[in-house]
Design goal:
Layout: E1 6-15, E2 18-28, E3 33-37, H1 44-51, E4 59-64, E5 67-68, E6 71-73, E7 79-81, H2 84-91, E8 94-97, H3 109-119, H4 125-138, H5 154-167, E9 172-176, H6 184-199, E10 203-207, H7 211-217, E11 220-225, E12 228-233, H8 235-239, H9 245-253
Parallel strand pairs: 3-10, 3-11, 8-9, 9-10
Antiparallel strand pairs: 1-2, 1-4, 4-5, 6-7, 11-12
Bound molecules: adenosine-5'-triphosphate (ATP).
Adenosine-5'-triphosphate is lined by residues 15, 20, 38, 40-46.
Length: 263
C-alpha cells in the first residue's frame, strides 16, 4: 500500500483547558484532494494548522510521507519532540495558503513569489525570478508580475499567494478557507487554479465552505463536528442519501452557498 501523504494518528489538541480535537485519525492519500468540512468551530483550521506544524499537537502523531512531523514515538509510547532542523526539513514538504493573502505590499507579484526562494533557500536572483515566473504563469498571472498587491484584485492576490507557496516546490498543499474573503466571481478564479493543481496530481487538503467545490473536485471528504471526525469518504458516500442527520443539518445551513446541487 502507498504511504499516505499525511497520516494523523490519535491527534488531540488543547488550548489551555479546552480540548478542541478529541483524537483524530485521518490519512491523506497521495495525489488526491481531501476537503475538511464541518460547522464553524468544529476544529477544521486547527487540524490543518497541526498538519503544517503551525500548531503543536497536545498528543498523538502526524507523519508526512511516512516521516514524523514535530514529534516521534518515544520509548514509553510518549511522543518526543524532534530537533528543529528535522522539523524544518519535514515541514518544507508542505505549502500553505491562508484566507488572508499576507502579501508584502511593497513588493511586486514577482517579488512576493521569488522572495523566499532568495532569502530562505539562497537561490540567486535571476533563477529565483525565473522560477517565480513559472509559478505566476501557472496561476495565470504572468502579465501581472510587475504589479503591486494594491494593483491586484483579491482573487489575483490569492493566486499570487498560491504561486508563492508553489515556488518552494511543496509535495503537499494545504488551503485554509482560501476563498472566504472573496466575492463569488473572484472565488471562481481561485477555485479554477486549485482545480488545475488537482488535475496535475498535487496532494491537497482544503478547509472550505465551498460545498460545490468539495463535491466536484475532492476525492475524499472528512466531516468534522465538535472536534471529532464524524465521517470520512468519497463525495458520493458523504453526500449521497441517506445522510447522517448532523451532515444534513450542516448542509441546510449552506444551501445558499453551492450545496443546492447536492440535494
Ligand atoms: N489559538 C486558539 N486559542 C484558543 N482557542 C482556539 C484557538 N484556535 C482555535 N480555538 C478554538 O478551537 C475551536 C476550533 O476552532 P477552529 O478555528 O479550528 O474551527 P473551524 O472549524 O476551523 O471554524 P471556522 O469554520 O469558523 O473557521 C474553536 O472553539 C476555537 O475557538
Amino acid at each position: 500500500m502507498t504511504t499516505p501523504a499525511i497520516s494523523v494518528k490519535g491527534l488531540i489538541k488543547r488550548f489551555g483547558e479546552a480540548e478542541v480535537l478529541h483524537g483524530i485519525d485521518l490519512d491523506i492519500p497521495q495525489g488526491q484532494v481531501t476537503c475538511l468540512i464541518g460547522p464553524s468551530g468544529s476544529g477544521k483550521s486547527t487540524l490543518l494548522r497541526c498538519m503544517a506544524f503551525l500548531e503543536e499537537a497536545t498528543d498523538g502523531l502526524i507523519f508526512i510521507n511516512g516521516e514524523p512531523l514535530g514529534f516521534a514515538p518515544g520509548p514509553q509510547g510518549k511522543p518526543v519532540r524532534l530537533p528543529a532542523a528535522r522539523i524544518r526539513a519535514v515541514r518544507s514538504q508542505i505549502g500553505m495558503v491562508f484566507q488572508q493573502f499576507n502579501l508584502w505590499p511593497h513588493m511586486t507579484a514577482l517579488g512576493n513569489v521569488s522572495e523566499a526562494l532568495k532569502t530562505v533557500h539562497g537561490v540567486r536572483k535571476n533563477e529565483a525570478e525565473e522560477r517565480a515566473m513559472i509559478q505566476l504563469k501557472k496561476v495565470g498571472l504572468a502579465e501581472r508580475a510587475g504589479h503591486y498587491p494594491s494593483q491586484l484584485s483579491g482573487g489575483q492576490q490569492q493566486r499570487v499567494a498560491i504561486a508563492r507557496a508553489l515556488a518552494l516546490e511543496p509535495k503537499i498543499m494545504l488551503f485554509d478557507e482560501p476563498t472566504s474573503s472573496l466575492d463569488p466571481e473572484l472565488t471562481g478564479e481561485v477555485l479554477n487554479v486549485m482545480r488545475s493543481l488537482a488535475a496535475d496530481g498535487m496532494t491537497m487538503v482544503v478547509v472550505s465552505h465551498e460545498i460545490g467545490f468539495a463535491a466536484a473536485v475532492c476525492q475524499q471528504i472528512a466531516f468534522l463536528d465538535h472536534g471529532k471526525l464524524l465521517m470520512t469518504g468519497t463525495p458520493q458516500q458523504i453526500f449521497g442519501k441517506p445522510r447522517h442527520p448532523r451532515l444534513d443539518q450542516f448542509l441546510d445551513t449552506y444551501l445558499d452557498r453551492g450545496a443546492a446541487m447536492l440535494v
